[in-house]
Amino acid sequence: MKINNKTALNFFPCVGCFIFLITLFLNSCNKSKIKPNTNKAPSSKSIKFETLTQHSSKKNNKNFELISNLQSGIDFKFDLGDFYSRAKEYIFATPMGGVATGDFNGDSLPDIYFTSPSGGNKLYKNLGNFKFTDVTKSAALEDTSIWGTGAGFVDIDGDGDLDIYACGYMTPNKIFINNGDETFTEKSKAIGLNHLGASMNLNFADIDGDNDLDAYLATTTKLPPPGTKFGVNFVKQKDGSEKPVIPNEISEYWQFIYLPNKKVHRTEAGQADKIFINNNGVFVDATAQSGIKGNYFTLSATWWDYDSDGDPDIYVSNDFTGPDMLYKNDGKGVFKNSIISSIPHTPWFSMGSDSADVNNDGLIDLFATDMAATSHYREKVMMGNMNDMGWFLEHANPRQYMRNALYINTGTDKMLESAFLSGIASTDWSWSPRLEDFDCDGLIDLFVTNGVIRDSMNSDLSIMADKQFKGGSPEWRKFWTNQKMRKERNLAFKNTGNLKFIPSGNLWGLDHEGVSLGTATADFDGDGDLDIVVNNADGQPLLYKNNTTNNRISIKLVGAKKNTQAIGSSVKIISNGEIQFKEINPVKGWLSSNDTTLSFGLGDNLTIDELIVRWRNGNVQRFGSIKANQKITIQEPSEYNDLDNNILSKPPLFSISKNIDNIIHKESTFDDFELQPLLPNRQSIKGPSICWGDVDNDNDNDLFIGGAANFPSKLYINNNGKLTLSENSGLNINNKPEIVSCLFFDADSDNDLDIVIGAGSNEFSTDDPAFIDQLYLNNGDGTFTLSPDYKAPSRPTNALSAIDINNDEKIDIIVGGSSVAGSYPLSEKTYVMLNKGNGAFEPIYNKSLDTAKLANEIKVNDIDNDGADEIIIACEWGPIRIYKNVNNALQEITADLQLDTKTGWWNSINLHDLDNDGDLDILATNFGHNTKYKASTSKPELLYYSDFDESGKLDIVEAKYEGNDLVPRRGFSCSQLAMPFIKDKMKSFHNFASSSLSGIYSKTSISSATKYEINTLESGVFINEKTHFKFIKLPPEAQIAPSFGSTVTDINEDGIADIVLAQNFYGPQRETGRMDGGLSLILLGLGDCRFKSIPHKDSGIHILGDTREVHSIDINNDGSDELIFALNNGPLMIYSKNK
Length: 1139
What we know:
The chain is mainly beta. It contains 18 helices and 81 strands. Residues 1-43 and 642-646 have low confidence and may be disordered.
């Protein structure tokens, strides 16, 4: 994030000493509750500068050079031991493969510790120049009994040298205390950390702020002892029913998941994680009072101060049906799970995670991995039977999807999620992510390890094993023992800014193919950039030397008390106006831990203008004008001046209104996919539709909100800014229709506002009366009477707009056609309801409007400044279409204006002069880039509609390009459930995944099907260039989710139009999952049709939910518009501008 350069604090070296001018620190990314103290005059002993070793040059044009094991001396051999006896644990938990880096002997050369499930862990001492020697025996660390999982170098006893912890799976955890002479003494029992169980990793942090290190123990699944029997207790509920619960004594092996309508699913559980509090060097189990709960398959846990309050919070990655957890620390070591209110969805099979500031805004983000495939073949082979776990995909809270997640910290209590947009949603079977600036350009990159011990997600193999053998039986174990490892390529991604990453593994030399598990980073050669070590299950470790040539700086913090590694502290640097921000939390990725020295890439910059340290206790130091290519060691001062720098943060632009009633839209329950199993998105959740107008003639805006099917619509009367439900409006009589559109207008020319409401959805059969639009005439006082003369057809509607189409000074209505009920993507016709006077209307069908299919929104205005209104329609599976009234006949001019070249899933439009040139431009919202769909002119998204199985019923087939081949979007399971011939023809997941679209359905059936295609997914602005329109896409933040609603207003009162977007969509079928990465958004106009997003912490707008509409209305007549957001199946949210 660019910031204005402030006056730099100058750093002047003089003879034998350093003088610093320290000023008060204002950290814009911290919450106002932090009260940092700034050390006013640190001594010269508190900071030390060393010159980095000379940068290496690239070899073979690769950023990384693989150092051979012969050259490095690392002869570690990963040993699986007896796979047969451990088959179930290996396949379902994979508790193995950790690696740690840290300088255990204080020679400034980071050393390496590897773990193995059999044969013992190993310590390698760094001799310099990428040469290492095995010192396991001489260091008194030999232990062949441990089933090694996670490990790390941590100064547990606070004496200034690094100890080693080594977790064991069903073997006791070990704590090796450093004796200071390159030997260790095992003291896990003496200090209370000798837990025996399904341990994965220990993650140390000062969770209670007392200046010593406490610990979070992540544990996972374990097998029940022989003879253990499943049992159930029943607990009586208030309604008299009995709820089944798992008895405590077997809660580590099984759990219940409770669904709506009192349905219960039994799944496997895991051992409960633990919290240990450091009490004068002895660790006490404080789990019971810590707030940590649940018995899950925990695979990793990452400290992450997501709320920037200085206290370490933690993200816990739980595999399979266990929900990931985001535990918020209250500052005293008590935690509350905030994941449901903070994060839209999580990975399903969560594995390793890592945290870093990926967008340089001074806030720490988090990346969590899953096993989503990078190829079409692998994706389809892994998809399995969707019916087996379909219930879980639809009811997990928050939702869990088999893909990675990148949570973008907004500085509020809610996160964006951008993995698809960022290009890193799918990285194969990924264990250990590492977020670091590997090319030293100032942007955080990503490295991911891949591969698997046995390919248990191969659906053909799994089905074969499940059919032939009982799980865990000798035959089952033998079957999986005889399978081969699945080798996959490790991946690397370069951060190019704007939340975008591009594949760079081959370019950087990091594309090893194998079974790579844990990975750790450290500056092994002292040149300031980060090198990489990887623990491989299928061979010897990988050691990569980083040969990046950009400028960099290395920073090591030394804590003053027991937390000598300054874990939980942070460093911010500002160089040439660019912010970089890092926290010290060594445990990252999969069972791994990293050296705590921080590396910052500087690109071409030669100077750091400001360096700001925030210690774990909240105290702050600040330095200026520091040269690049140095290693800086900063010692925490023992004393600070008692200066209170608590600066109140600037309030956001908007805050949620406190004076509104509880206005909530409730969605009806309906299964669209029973009608059309391969339907991409639900057609039954298009509400709420809201509209504003002064229905009682008291000079303020009243609110109508349309009801879902079988729920009433409601009218709220505005009384001095307070919205009160009108009990006798007459608008809540007919509850059956689903209201998808509404429009206030004067239908009968009596100078009050009447209302037409459009009925749509997918929930009724063709020609059902529930699809008849209705006109209600205002009695003059805000009560309404149904007009019997509004002769609308019984067909579902999508959109409504007013126009005087025949220039008779009576307002007519244009009705946008929805999809035909149960027959998407077939479209109803778009037509005109002609006003005959006195509330009488009749439908008129204009052939020109037949091209306006799936009309999602309609606007009417004078686009070409000729004094006559045009009709502008946002179409799904088509362009933005424009129709002009020429001599009382409608003519389509879409192609004339070059709008036909951009086909999309256009959801909404707004007309405004966005470039201040005197004509109207078109703001058009679309699905964005944060989904699995990727459309372009050369490789569009496709949908074919035909009777593929000759059943007499038309079927949907979605298609995409894989290279130059067309392949199906949907998987084998759901495709053959919809069209059984596919099962008989394909027979296996392998065959289906290997086949092209025509190989599955035949060339003839594809060529004869009705074809729909789009080439544009961005939301953007069509700039009116008089003779044509030019498309400009909105910023990346606008592409992070679909937008179904927008408004144009002047947020900052600078005379330039700004944009507000309603974001997210909960309608996709369960295989796709919710498109919910956004929080709704304000974009400030720059005056030339370019826009800049306002950070959510500054705008005050951060809404999790399926937000469908946004309006800018002055509700209380105070001269300032409120922003009103309408959520499907959620509340109406009204935001008022802060004065």
